[in-house]
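User: Just a sanity check before I run the rest of the batch. Below are the structure tokens for the first item. I only need the designed sequence back.
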């Protein structure tokens, strides 16, 4: 466990010691900043113009006005490019510099290596999206009122957040790996469970947040972003294990990622209800967001696709690394 955590820490820190992480961060912030600016403009429009689902514009699912449609094409065209940048160096750099041999002879299993690299890139991906949480109060039109009600559920929530912070510090200061994992899991259970019970069972709260716009599309959209991102990252990690060049790894990741994007353009070629239309919808990630996630709907079919492709790619990546060890 200690070796795995050390490798996660090294891989995550590498994003901030080289240009790859900053390129991905810059591209991501510019793109989402432009989309947020477009959403705010549509929300403040006067007259019949505007937007019904703000998250559709933020995640490239709106078909009108024309500006939102162009932004959607740009978003989903760049999405696999950004995830490809994040994953291109993970194994390809090790192979290109020759450090893969030292890694393969270290006292750590192949699946631990792949798990550590995936967790690190996934953590960086979540860090990118965490910056967009600043947009949520505007997208859901929040009003915040401090009530200061201290209840057992509120205390459990605060204790969970504190344990998560302690686990985070323990992770960076190289404390016992199992202790960090247990503290993190306990903190997550207390924070999520206590927060849910505090929100639903207590009459008064520490902070009362009221959303004047239905908040469900925000939550379901972020759920889709997390799971779809995991799928694209796992695909990019698999490609990175095949080649030595980071540029080649990025290009292949982009091309394979577009296989889950371009079918959205083919849906107009099929009649609704036909087999072709169903297949195009099943693999087209933009369609999942346009029809479901950004409207506050959770369809299990996209979730099954994301999870199954993620697990399959991680398994194949481990096998790819094992095959290199046996050469």
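Assistant: Here's the designed sequence for the first item:
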């Amino acid at each position: 466990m200690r070796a795995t955590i050390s490798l996660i820490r090294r891989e995550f820190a590498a994003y901030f010691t080289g240009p790859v992480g900053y390129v991905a961060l810059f591209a991501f912030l510019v793109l989402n900043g432009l989309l947020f600016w477009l959403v705010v403009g549509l929300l403040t429009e006067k007259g019949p113009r505007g937007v019904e689902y703000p998250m559709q514009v933020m995640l490239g699912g709106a078909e009108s006005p024309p500006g939102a449609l162009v932004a959607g094409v740009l978003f989903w065209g760049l999405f696999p490019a950004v995830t490809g940048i994040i994953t291109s160096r993970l194994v390809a750099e090790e192979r290109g510099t020759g450090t893969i041999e030292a890694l393969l002879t270290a006292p750590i299993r192949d699946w631990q290596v792949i798990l550590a690299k995936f967790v690190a890139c996934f953590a960086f991906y979540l860090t990118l999206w965490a910056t967009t949480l600043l947009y949520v109060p505007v997208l859901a039109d929040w009003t915040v009122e401090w009530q200061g009600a201290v209840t057992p559920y509120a205390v459990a929530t605060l204790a969970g957040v504190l344990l998560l912070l302690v686990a985070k510090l323990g992770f960076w200061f190289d404390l016992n790996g199992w202790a960090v994992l247990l503290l993190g899991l306990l903190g997550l259970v207390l924070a999520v469970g206590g927060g849910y019970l505090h929100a639903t069972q207590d009459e008064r709260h520490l902070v009362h947040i009221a959303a004047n716009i239905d908040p469900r599309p925000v939550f379901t959209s972020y759920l889709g972003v997390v799971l779809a991102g995991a799928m694209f990252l796992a695909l990019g990690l698999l490609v990175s294990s095949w080649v030595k060049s980071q540029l080649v790894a990025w290009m292949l990741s982009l091309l394979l990622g577009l296989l889950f994007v371009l079918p959205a353009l083919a849906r107009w070629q099929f009649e609704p209800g036909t087999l072709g239309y169903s297949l195009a919808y099943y693999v087209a990630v933009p369609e999942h967001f346009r029809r479901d996630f950004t409207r506050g709907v959770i369809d299990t079919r996209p979730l099954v696709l994301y999870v199954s492709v993620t697990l399959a790619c991680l398994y194949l990546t481990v096998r790819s690394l094992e095959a290199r060890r046996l050469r």
